[in-house]
Specification:
Number of domains: 1
Distance between the termini: 30 Å
CATH superfamily: Leucyl/phenylalanyl-tRNA-protein transferase, C-terminal domain
Helix content: 25-40%
CATH class: Alpha Beta
Number of helices: 7
CATH topology: Aminopeptidase
Strand order of the largest sheet: 4-5-6-7-8-3-9
Shape: globular
Strand content: 25-35%
């Protein structure tokens, strides 16, 4: 039987414990990787030269939380995906509560790239990103990081590390290190 959605309470509790869900053929699976991907929010965050130039050119209009569901659906629009209707419904509820956000790149042709994630305390949990035009998701990531830095966010969790994220200074930490980082980022969050 397919779930309509995961309760907000269950999602928030899971994130606060370092666990996140993914759908697989109608079933919700929960993950807590042994090695966790993070992107630094200090001087170690690196923007490749060509991407810095693209950001300065202002080719895309950045919007935040303008089309959250559209970003989720675009992230799901690939051959293999962990984003199904249950995930979309659940994260849309978090979005309605102000706990999930999308960073979007738009041009005259519409939504061209972006990412979404969950925000709790001083942590942002990146969920997925997509591009319809070259580097649009990367531009969205640069804007996300700048915004998180302004807000005093301490942890940008990417779940797993990829070569794509390593170019920004992304790195892996052990589950134990991640739990310490998470605890610090959530120390003012009431259970």
């Amino acid at each position: 039987m397919l779930m309509k959605g995961i309760s907000v309470e269950m999602l928030l509790s899971a994130y606060c414990q370092g666990v996140f869900p993914m759908a697989d053929q109608g079933e919700i699976l929960w993950f807590e990787p042994v090695m966790r991907g993070v992107i630094p929010l200090d001087e170690r965050f690196h923007v490749p030269k060509n991407l810095r130039k693209l950001v300065r050119q202002g080719r895309y209009e950045l919007r935040v939380d303008f089309d959250f569901e559209g970003v989720m659906r675009a992230c799901a629009d690939r051959q293999e995906t962990w984003i199904d209707e249950c995930i979309i419904d659940s994260y849309s509820e978090l979005y309605a509560m102000g706990l999930a956000h999308s960073y979007e790149c738009w041009d005259d042709d519409g939504l061209q790239g972006g990412l979404y994630g969950v925000s709790i305390g001083r942590a942002f949990f990146g969920e997925s990103m997509f591009s319809r035009k070259v580097n649009a998701s990367k531009v969205a990531l640069v804007h996300l990081v700048k915004n998180l830095q302004r807000q005093g966010i301490e942890l940008l969790d990417t779940q797993w590390m990829t070569d794509h994220l390593r170019q920004f200074g992304g790195y892996e930490v052990s589950r134990e290190e991640y739990r310490d980082m998470l605890e610090n980022a959530l120390d003012d969050v009431k259970p």
